[in-house]
Structures are given as structure tokens and as C-alpha cells.
Design a protein that fits this description.
Chain lengths: 178, 178
């Protein structure tokens, strides 16, 4: 079960993503075209305060033309490992430093057309410092409990996939009493 | 909090996705470039059998160069509504017809670079019929309980975002006894 590349053509090599079209040979002998977005990969962090609240960020997302409430996240820099990136993005977007960072899981948000892989972490022992947003980022910090987030997911007010995964995962690992 | 489009340039209009680069004006007066993948949108279905097992499909995903275990899913055809698409993809990929289809939620898997929206459904009252896969799809059907799926997610063997969201959502809505 695989698809051998017969021909590969780049249509865009961009600042963040590349787009290529692969002609592939299917196991049944036919050929097909695959449009593929190459992405550097990303991290997302569920930052949990001592009182159990989660630190979220609200920022405008041009592709969907609205401001979304999300867990802090960002793209991997060239050669950067996921832990370093997670610490950096958390600090830049929220000002918090994490005393403890735990891997949760890795997943593909859109494997039908992109190779993007998101590395998901849980951050605890948070200490507040200064935000350091890039010049083109305008980000608001929001604090919500996991159950408040679940309510917003069910109401359709939180629509970001990685935020839904991070919240459900956190809740699934909490002891039943909490 | 928004980003006005100053200039828009299409670099690719493809079979499934388009890629454009928008020059935007930020609220702070600066300009920035946004690479945006336009996607027609998709559906994903959590098909639940009377015994509680979930119907999954395994298929090769060229962007990530591996076969992934996922819930049935597919792209919206032009003008197609999400319910019709969900029924069609479920039938094509697994052979099952759903007597009952419930909306779960809608989410953006990758709002940082794509407008893709996934409409997630739960399908029950399933009746087996014939699969009708497209010529370039080679799809294997797999039946697993929700707890088996969670184990595979935790082991890093299920890596598809929509499958993780669908499974966690299903579990979060089950009565505590099940």
C-alpha cells in the first residue's frame, strides 16, 4: 500500500509553505496527481496554571477571516527541536515560562493535502514574564477552565482543531474527581 | 482585530486546492504577507456499530508517505451540503449506510495557513452494503472499540487529527458506565 512518485513539480516555494504536485503510481497500476503542501511542522502547548485554568490566545487568522481562540502554537524554525520551539512560542505569545514541559502527542491535522505535523505539549509550573510578540502578531491572552473550553467547543465558539485535541486530551487524563 | 487585504495573487489554481498570497494591512499599520491554501472543506464521520465499535479506514496518504488509520472522510463536492457528503463518503469508503446522522461539530484543522473546515458527524443505525471507492482510492476497513482507538492514539499509532477529535468527542458524551 503506497504511491511511488513518478514526477514531482514545485509550483511554489514560499516563506512558510511550499506547494508541489506529484504524479504517483498507484498499487492498481493507474496514475494520479497529488497536490501537496509542505509545511515545516508546528508545536502547540496546553499551558495549565496552578488553579487548573488554561492559558489561551486570541488572534486573527487571515485564512478563515476571523479571530480564533487557540492554545499557544507556532511553526518550527529550521533545525529547531519541538521542545525549544514550544518554550519559545509559549513565552512569545503569552509571556509565560514553563518549569515543566511534557509531550502529549504528535498528529497530522490535514494529512490529505499537507505533511504538517503538530507536536502537542502540556506546560505546567508557569511563571509570568514579558510577552515578546513578533511585529506582525497581535495576540490577546485569555484564561479559561477546561470545562469552560469544552462548553465553547460544544457551542461552536472554539473551532481550532489543535485546541480541541489539547483540551480533550487533558480532560481524558485528569482523575475522575476533578 | 483584523487584516485588510491590500493585494491578492493566486499562485496555483488546482484540482483540489488553490494557493494565494495576500498582502495584508495589520492593525498596527504594518504590512505582512499571508500564504493561504484554499480548500473546498470536508466531512468526517464517526460510524458507530450497535456493539459500540467504530468503523475506521486505512489508506495511504501521500503527503505524509504512510498509511493512516482514520475515520471515513472526504472533500465536499461543489454545491454539496455536508450531510449528503457525509452519507456519500461513508458509503463509498466503507459500504455502510447510516440510518441516523448527527452533527457533532465543525472545526478548522489548520487555520494558520488554510481555510479548510471539517464538518464532523456521528453515524449510527448502520447497514452494510457495497463499497464504491473511486479508482484512485485503495481503502481497507477496520473495526475498533473507542478504548482501542484511545490506546492507539496514546501509543502514537493513530496520528490523524480528525480521528482523534471524533474519538475523544464520542467518549466525552458517553454515559460514565460505558
Amino acid at each position: 500500500m503506497d504511491e511511488k512518485t513518478v514526477e514531482r513539480k514545485y509550483v511554489h516555494k514560499g516563506r512558510i509553505i511550499n506547494l508541489r504536485v506529484d504524479k504517483v503510481l498507484l498499487p492498481n497500476g493507474r496514475e494520479a496527481l497529488r497536490e501537496i503542501v509542505e509545511h515545516p511542522g508546528a508545536v502547540a502547548v496546553v499551558p495549565v496554571l496552578p488553579d487548573g485554568r488554561i492559558v489561551l490566545v486570541r488572534q486573527f487568522r487571515k485564512p478563515v477571516e476571523e479571530a480564533l481562540l487557540e492554545i499557544p502554537a507556532g511553526k518550527l524554525e529550521k533545525g529547531e527541536n519541538a521542545e525549544t520551539c514550544a518554550m519559545r512560542e509559549l513565552k512569545e505569545e503569552t509571556g509565560f515560562r514553563a518549569g515543566k514541559l511534557e509531550k502529549i502527542l504528535r498528529f497530522f491535522p490535514s494529512p490529505g493535502f499537507s505533511d504538517e505535523c503538530i507536536h502537542l505539549f502540556k506546560a505546567t509550573e508557569l511563571q509570568k514574564g514579558e510577552k515578546n510578540t513578533e511585529h506582525d502578531e497581535l495576540i490577546e491572552t485569555v484564561f479559561l477552565s477546561a470545562s469552560e473550553i469544552v462548553k465553547l467547543i460544544e457551542e461552536g465558539k472554539i473551532k481550532d482543531g489543535k485546541t480541541i485535541i489539547g483540551t480533550f486530551y487533558l480532560l481524558s487524563t485528569l482523575p475522575p474527581s476533578s
